[in-house]
Design brief:
Layout (H helix, E strand, L loop, with lengths): L2 H4 L23 E6 L3 H4 L6 H11 L1 H14 L4 E4 L5 H5 L8 H8 L23 E2 L13 H8 L3 E7 L1 H14 L3 E10 L3 H15 L2 E3 L1 H8 L14 E3 L5 E4 L2 E3 L8 E4 L9 E4 L3 E5 L2 E4 L3 H4 L10 H8 L19
Parallel strand pairs: 1-2, 1-4, 2-3, 4-5, 5-6, 7-13
Antiparallel strand pairs: 7-8, 9-10, 10-11, 12-13
Helix pairs in contact: 4-10, 8-9
Length: 338
């Protein structure tokens, strides 16, 4: 890396899959991370059950987690389980009850006490020998455990996340994963929360922007193992969904790259779109059955500059200046460094 580029870049800002265009989940590079699939969250009588039961029951979290985990195992995708567990030392010596509001809540409600029934895995979500059980996390971000070491050892670039809870551990971990360059997918019907408002905000507002795509378990399994003879490329007639799972339209035409334009697909105007949309092909990140996903939410897709063909010249404008051509990073100043 040149000295000029070093002023802008960090090792954490790279997209790990690079130029890869696999619209399924690449074998040997995909892992399923299930956060806190334990009794305190998911079982009647658990310390948090009165808070979580509305979303767990409404969304069908346990059943969908079970299907996602089983499907991943069957297709050789590593399953990593990230539970919580607290001991006396965490509170008496490290004062974790003073760290955050949620740590105080967990302390006062005696959640996830190490060795207890509440901290144990839900009876329908028991680990198998092939699964990886991570060291317990103590706050929201599971990257504070041995998760990074396992992902590095396994060569993972695509991280699929499910579990508990939507706006805390699941969101914090997924956000960190994306910051580190992982391709992040959230399985929204295998995620629960302490309330429906927090679930809806996480699933429909936050995940679509801080991850690459939101999917449901059936779609995850379809993308993981396409039916025999199924294409792994966009096809005319495919339904296009945004990263928020909102329907954008149907693929009318697929245009290969030309001397002056990028490869793109055309979604014609209709009830949802007020004008034809020319979506760059590299905005398509996943295909499941006859559904393709772009990494822009439906809620803002109308604000994207996709009302005309994506010309190479226009794309070059989006790339910004070369590092060597920038005198100062922030207009008049450079980063201070350490």
């Amino acid at each position: 890396m040149t000295q000029e580029a070093d002023r802008f870049n960090t090792a954490e800002s790279n997209y790990k899959p690079g130029n890869q265009r696999d619209l399924s989940f690449p074998r040997g590079q995909t892992a399923l991370l299930v956060i806190d699939p334990v009794n305190d969250f998911l079982s009647e009588g658990g310390a948090a059950w009165e808070m979580t039961k509305s979303t767990v029951k409404t969304v069908g979290v346990v059943e969908n987690l079970k299907r996602a985990i089983q499907g991943a195992r069957e297709h050789g995708v590593p399953v990593l389980l990230g539970p919580m567990a607290f001991t006396e030392e965490d509170y008496a010596e490290h004062n974790l009850q003073r760290l955050t509001a949620i740590n105080r809540v967990m302390f006062e409600h005696k959640m996830f006490l190490a060795g207890s029934w509440g901290a144990d895995f839900h009876p329908e979500l028991q680990p198998q020998q092939s699964d990886i059980i991570l060291k317990p996390h103590k706050v929201n971000d599971v990257f504070g455990t041995d998760l990074p070491e396992h992902l590095e050892r396994l060569g993972i670039t695509h991280l699929v996340i499910a579990g508990m809870t939507a706006n805390l551990c699941v969101e914090s971990t997924g956000r960190h994963a994306a910051e580190l360059g992982y391709d992040v997918t959230y399985l929204t019907n295998a995620i629960g929360s302490e309330s429906m408002p927090s679930y809806e905000a996480a699933v429909h507002v936050n995940y679509p922007l801080i991850g690459n795509v939101t999917m449901q378990v059936d779609e995850f399994l379809l993308a993981l193992a396409p039916s025999e003879g199924a294409s792994n490329t966009v096809q005319v007639g495919d339904t296009v969904l945004g990263s928020d799972h909102g329907e954008i339209g149907t693929v009318q035409e697929i245009i290969a790259a030309t001397e002056d334009a990028e490869a793109h697909l055309i979604v014609p105007r209709g009830v949802i779109l007020h004008k034809d949309m020319f979506i760059p092909l590299d905005a398509v990140v996943r295909r499941a059955g006859t559904t393709v996903f772009v990494n822009v939410p439906k809620l803002i897709v109308g604000n994207m500059p996709w009302s005309e063909r994506p010309l190479h010249a226009k794309r070059r404008e989006h790339l910004g200046p070369r590092a060597v051509d920038v005198t100062n990073v922030y207009g008049s100043k450079d980063p201070s460094g350490s």
